[in-house]
Amino acid sequence: MLQHDAMKLTQRIEALSQLGKVLNGLSKEKLLDWADKAGNENRWFTQESVAMAISGISKMLKKDALTSWAEAYTLNSSVKRIGIVMAGNIPLVGFHDLLSVLISGNKAVIKLSSQDKVLMPLLTDLLISIEQTFEDQIEYVGKLEHIDAVIATGSDNSARYFKQYFGKQPHIIRKNRTSCAVLKGDETDEDIIALGKDIFSYFGLGCRNVSKLYVPKEYDFISFLDVLNAYKDIAFHSKWVNNYDYNKSIYLVNREPHLDTGFLLLKESSELVSPLAVLFYEVYTDTEALKSRLEINKDKIQCIIGSEANRLDCIPFGEGQYPEVLDYADGVDTLKFLTEI
After folding, report:
1. What are phi and psi of 304, to 5 degrees?
2. Model pLDDT for residues 166-188, shown as the tens digit of each residue
3. CB 61, CB 71: distance < 8 Å
4. Same domain, 17 and 145
5. Cα(113)–Cα(8) distance, rounded to whole angstroms?
6. How far apart are CA 306 and CA 193, in angstroms?
7. Residue where a domain terminates, one of 141, 176, 211
8. Residue segments in the chain with a per-residue pLDDT below the cut of 70
9. Contact between 105 and 8 (Cβ < 8 Å)
10. 121 vs 131: CA distance, rounded Å
11. What is 240-309 written as a DSSP string?
12. Are 301 and 243 part of one and the same domain?
């Protein structure tokens, strides 16, 4: 890499790490203002959800981590226009794609989700106030045109549309994913409380949210649910409780066995993705057999939460919503993709 390119990369890293510090130090007034604006557009975006998303981004933007990440790749010297179709299921969910495009020196041409139109422009305005040259690297559009490649995130249905529309261009097209947790039965109350963050953060709407438990035979659900009662206040959110009431009525009418906490339903199922306000579970008897089952479903699983002691490649309880820069969505190396265009 030429020295002047390295300097440009150094400047980008410096600005992005400064952004992380600014986000980490956002005043309560500024955070409330951002959350109010986002919440007016999408009632799932509460102050707590917005604060958690911003906290996760600020942790991601550590200078040393950004430097070691970017320097592991040979970045292109020519600037490409990279279209980004952003999802809107949780606040600022498309940030890692934007970060990848910016750190690679390319231009981000962004199509925002109708569910999250407010937060990303506020964040990029903040970045541009730190480093003015980023203004030429960020463009918001209503329709993606004249692009060299595209990164698109959506549902399984929208992925088919993206494939048809962008199939002839270099692309990363992501589908639905979910996350699961593997329990051994010897978890502490602190472990279960931490797991609650993986279940309830963002109201379970993210691909890194746990929607399925794998539990040993004769697992003590009574103790588990007693501890999870710490999250009962989620029932005060009208959209959550609407989902809870709807799914409860279906299970009652169909006489389907389930457990009911008053704010969360647990149901045994072999399926991975549970409805909102429902947590699926499945019993396992052998860790190696479970490992094989998870491997079969790896294209549908974003991450596995659990203890290191269960001999699976797990993220610790409570850490699911804090990916690092190397934690690529769907396991596709975004920065490698950008270097090969």
Report:
1. -115, 125
2. 878 999 999 889 999 999 999 99
3. no
4. yes
5. 30
6. 13
7. 176
8. 1-7, 309-311
9. yes
10. 15
11. HHHHHHHHHHHHHHTT---EE-SS-EEEE-S-SPPPTTEEEEEEES-HHHHHHHHHHTTTTEEEEEE-GG
12. yes
